[in-house]
């Protein structure tokens, strides 16, 4: 921050865009009249209006610009504001006059003022002084140096006030108030006005800086809580956007996520914790973590929202949230959706027609004591699900219902003009003509349903007896040859045999085997036992315990998931690269 000379003929833009007020720039005759009122009602009225002007600043530079608007020309003809280079030796006065922490000064963005000698003593006192005060002459010459933005003609000392900008525990700089020769010189009574202006400005800078730090911390917290990237899944393509509110520096509680589920399904969630604060961001993070845990249990959507509601009541009785939890099955081409007081989702079909899905709204999360309902529907290949928060559709000029209709028309226009790639769709929704006047955060999640063709899936039931592994190997071999994956037969048979053998050992009902060919070859084996196997290091004398170790060595990825009906063990292998044929010609 450099020194800012503010003569009264500088246009508004030079003052940081501050809007002028009638009281901030009275006619010159009125200024003289205010000067003649002394410390009476005129000064009190001026101070009341000035502090309200200063409080309009939302950032440190804005606040200093508002100080200029409040002072010129009502109290001075020119204001120079110098940030300080470093704290003077010693400590600054606190509110009760005691010496506490060293003075912490405003970070400077340009040439700053060295703090030493008489100026250091002046800052240490924290009190404004007239230019005629003893030992201040060197300070006046230094602060009004033309090289630092001061006037070419040095004013007389009685027309100068030097006011340290001292906040609660620090000094951010120095304000120099200068009157021209056609106005009365400053008097001792004017020091009270200068003191109030300088102190209020410094305290306001303290507050907006603290608010900025809190907002930055909350924004960083929210960024870490939102997914860094969306998973790459078979049968669905995902894209997302997040935009902070345009009119508040505080962070909101909007979040979204996508989580893979057993059977190549995917859970899609979007939510919004009411309010803008660190608390909202923290609750958002806890709810998102809870949803991830509940999704891992493979519960129906209405059960997920029910347990999320219970958790929200334990976290806070004063914060509520809205949420949509959806599950897409790319094999059955089915979509299940449960809504907890959230704006309704949209579905864009492959022909470019958008509709609002008829999902019961349900109560918000945190209301307690109420139930949720799951709607199930067909999700055709090529359709795109749009989940969003209310910041996208609600503003001061339109309600949510009108906003949802606007969004439906916008999605439909984009789908018909551009097709429905989710990334392109998100950009079109938030592009030109989008929610520019938003008062709330916006979260947007788009899921394009590509599905998985039936010919890429094989599914069998096997009785849990010792011969199950042999039968599984036979079925696997036959299917891989049909898929022309002969090179994968031997390792896949071995892996299937190990996993099926382990499942048959603990199952009491028929187990199931599924092979899925997408960009990988995936094998899933499920049974009714809740026991989830863990890989362990087998000892030399052990007859078992090496199956999962073998799976871990041969498979690219593997895992075990507990289901509501038991468990599932899966592994994936990379498909062989297609043969390279030499080019002809």
Description:
By secondary structure, this protein is of the alpha+beta class. The protein has three domains: 12-213, GAF domain (Beta-Lactamase, 2-Layer Sandwich); 226-449, PPM-type phosphatase domain (Phosphatase 2c, domain 1, 4-Layer Sandwich); 454-574, Histidine kinase-like ATPase, C-terminal domain (Heat Shock Protein 90). The protein is 32% helix and 22% strand. The protein is built from 13 helices and 19 strands. The protein has helices at 28-36, 41-54, 60-71, 117-125, 137-143, 190-225, 278-296, 301-315, 400-418, 422-430, 468-482, 489-506, 547-554; strands spanning 78-83, 129-130, 160-166, 171-178, 236-243, 252-261, 265-276, 321-329, 334-340, 346-348, 354-356, 374-378, 384-388, 442-449, 457-462, 511-517, 520-527, 557-563, 566-574. The chain has a five-stranded antiparallel sheet, with helices on one face. A five-stranded antiparallel sheet has the order 6-7-8-9-12, covered by helices on one side. A five-stranded antiparallel sheet has the order 15-16-17-19-18, covered by helices on one side. Helix 12 runs antiparallel to helix 13 (547-554).
Would you spell out the secondary-structure blueprint of this structure?
Blueprint: H1 28-36, H2 41-54, H3 60-71, E1 78-83, H4 117-125, E2 129-130, H5 137-143, E3 160-166, E4 171-178, H6 190-225, E5 236-243, E6 252-261, E7 265-276, H7 278-296, H8 301-315, E8 321-329, E9 334-340, E10 346-348, E11 354-356, E12 374-378, E13 384-388, H9 400-418, H10 422-430, E14 442-449, E15 457-462, H11 468-482, H12 489-506, E16 511-517, E17 520-527, H13 547-554, E18 557-563, E19 566-574
Helix pairs in contact: 2-3, 2-6, 3-6, 6-7, 7-8, 9-10, 11-12, 12-13
């Amino acid at each position: 921050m450099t020194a800012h000379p503010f003569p009264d003929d500088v246009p508004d833009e030079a003052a940081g865009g501050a809007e002028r007020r009638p009281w901030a720039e009275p006619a010159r005759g009125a200024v003289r009249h205010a000067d003649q009122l002394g410390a009476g009602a005129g000064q009190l009225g001026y101070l009341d209006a000035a502090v309200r002007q200063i409080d309009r600043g939302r950032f440190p530079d804005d606040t200093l610009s508002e100080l200029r608007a409040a002072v010129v020309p009502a109290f001075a003809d020119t204001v120079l504001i110098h940030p300080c280079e470093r704290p003077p030796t010693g400590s600054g006065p606190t509110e009760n006059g005691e010496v506490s922490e060293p003075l912490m000064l405003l970070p400077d963005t340009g040439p700053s003022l060295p703090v030493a000698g008489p100026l250091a003593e002046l800052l240490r006192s924290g009190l404004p002084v007239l230019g005629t005060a003893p030992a201040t002459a060197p300070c006046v010459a230094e602060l009004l140096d033309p090289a630092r933005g001061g006037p070419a003609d040095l004013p007389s000392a009685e027309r100068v006030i030097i006011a340290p900008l001292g906040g609660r525990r620090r000094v951010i700089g120095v304000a120099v108030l200068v009157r021209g020769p056609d106005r009365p010189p400053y008097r001792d009574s004017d020091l009270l006005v200068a003191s109030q202006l300088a102190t209020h400005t410094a305290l306001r800078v303290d507050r907006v800086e603290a608010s900025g730090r809190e907002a930055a911390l909350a924004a960083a917290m929210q960024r870490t809580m939102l997914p860094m990237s969306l998973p790459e899944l078979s049968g669905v393509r995902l894209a997302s956007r997040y935009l902070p509110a345009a009119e508040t520096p505080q962070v909101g509680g909007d979040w979204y996520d996508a989580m893979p589920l057993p059977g190549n399904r995917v859970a899609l969630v979007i939510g919004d914790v009411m309010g803008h604060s660190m608390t909202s961001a923290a609750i958002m993070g806890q709810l998102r973590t809870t949803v991830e845990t509940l999704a891992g249990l493979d519960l129906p959507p209405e059960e997920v929202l029910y347990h999320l509601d219970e958790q929200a009541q334990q976290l806070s009785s004063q914060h509520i949230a809205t949420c949509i939890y959806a599950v897409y099955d790319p094999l059955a081409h089915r979509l299940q959706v449960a809504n907890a007081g959230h704006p309704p989702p949209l579905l864009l079909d492959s022909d470019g027609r958008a509709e609002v899905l008829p999902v019961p709204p349900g109560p918000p999360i945190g209301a307690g004591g109420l139930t949720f309902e799951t709607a199930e529907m067909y999700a055709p290949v090529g359709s795109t699900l749009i989940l969003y928060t209310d910041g996208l559709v609600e503003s001061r000029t339109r309600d949510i219902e009108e906003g949802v209709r606007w969004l439906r028309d916008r999605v439909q226009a984009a789908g018909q003009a551009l097709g429905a790639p989710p990334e392109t769709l998100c950009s079109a929704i938030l592009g030109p003509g989008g929610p520019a006047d938003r008062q709330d955060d916006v979260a947007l999640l788009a899921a394009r349903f590509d599905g998985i063709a039936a010919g890429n899936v094989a599914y069998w039931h096997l009785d849990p007896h010792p011969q199950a592994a042999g039968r599984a190997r036979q079925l696997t071999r036959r299917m891989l040859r049909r898929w022309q994956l002969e090179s994968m037969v031997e390792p896949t048979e071995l892996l299937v045999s190990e996993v099926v053998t382990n499942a048959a050992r603990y199952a009491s009902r028929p187990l199931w085997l599924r092979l899925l060919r997408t960009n990988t070859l995936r094998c899933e084996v499920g049974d009714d036992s809740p026991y989830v196997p863990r890989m362990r290091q087998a000892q030399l004398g052990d007859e078992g315990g090496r199956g999962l170790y073998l799976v871990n060595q041969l498979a690219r990825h593997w895992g075990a998931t507990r289901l509501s009906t038991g468990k599932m063990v899966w592994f994936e292998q990379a498909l062989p690269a297609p043969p390279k044929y030499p080019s002809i010609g």
